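Re: beginner question about structure tokens

> Can someone show what the tokenized structure looks like for a real chain? I only ever see the sequence side.

Sure, here's an example I had lying around. Input first:
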Amino acid sequence: MKKIFVKSDNIATLVCDGCGKRRRKDVSRFTRLKQEVRLKWTCPCGAVNRAVLERRNFVRFKVNLSGKFSYHSQDGQHSVAPLVVVDISQGGLLFKRRTGLGSYPFREGDRLSVQFDLDDQNRSSVQREVGVRTIREDGSVGAEFVSKEHYDRLGPYLLYHSA
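And the corresponding structure tokens:
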């Protein structure tokens, strides 16, 4: 199902699959909902269209980047484990353990350090502090970058992927 991106002014551009006609629509009533928003509309040409409303601030890109996370708990314990970044955006990333399942030493709301290698020509290494937003049942972890400023190799990498 195609995605329709919402701009900062809560306006989405609906494009008919049949005739290509564009229509701007205020979707502000959907922006605070937690669940996925599926739209269905009929164009004046008669074509029935379906799409998912994408409300993320930044577009995510599927990747397969190796790295590790490092976590320091409040009781002084230190944990390091390998990870695979499965998607990334300017705002954050989604990662999984490289091997095995099991519980993580951190919880939602905790901060940790992630280090991963980009799949660019130089295999550039990136290190960031992230805040854990979600820990999913499948073992994947959604994390938000503490800083959205990317002045190292990550900035051009994200720019290249958005082209």
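Each token stands for a local structural state, so reading them left to right follows the chain. The radius of gyration is 19 Å.
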